[in-house]
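Entry 12.
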Amino acid sequence: MSTTATISTLRAETNAANPAATQTTGHRRGANTDQQLLARLAGGLFLITYATSIPPVAALYVPVLNDPAFIMGTGTDMGLSWGALLELLLIVSNIGTALVLFPILKRVSEVLALGFVAVRIMESVFIAVGILSLLSIGTLRAEAAGADAGALLIVGQALVVLHDWTFLLGPGTVVGVGNGLILGYLMYKSRLIPRAMSVLGLIGGPALLAASAAILLGFIEPGSTWQVIATVPEFFWELSLGIWLLARGFNPGALAALEAATPGRSGAARD
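Predicted 3D structure (tokens):
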């Protein structure tokens, strides 16, 4: 009998003698595969948040945000409509990132993992209010023909100001707590991704919060150079996280460590 055949025979005898161990090993492999699929799904959703959040601010919403007389126009503005649609997809992908990561992150800290979900929902609420404010301008533009021009201008400017505050308090502030501090800490502690990458979140979160506080207190202006600088670490943190998770997934060693450290997981696997 060859050496290879002997090894195969010994393995078969071992598996027959300990079927529970074989079942547990198979379960763990399946679980790891599922977790890596979740990682790649989360990475894709993070990248979708970029694809859906940048065009409205950079192009589609520019006329309504920058031209006070926009509300005095006529007809439906398709840029505004497309921007609102993209931001609705942004809301879905925002919440999706938290829900997809929750089963993994709760093994590090269930409280913080749930907090991440809650903060993502809160951010999405701010975004939704901002969408409603701009859609209201679009409705008035299309249907308020003959209304008092001065009153329309005041209402339009008020709705734009409301949108600007939702942008500051949502993506400009809440993101620093959720994506920056909470997610950055959970990823740093778990080592699911390289720790050097997680540090970007731990830097970007406080930087966003500091910039937001400075704007609220009147120390800097919205859209100023200081705010842009404060946004850079968070921008690259979320972008690099999305690319890494989509391309590489979680660190297998870190997943195994979380599996071993979670009470009851081994017993559940054997059942």
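Annotation: Residues 40-248 form one domain. The chain has one domain: 40-248.
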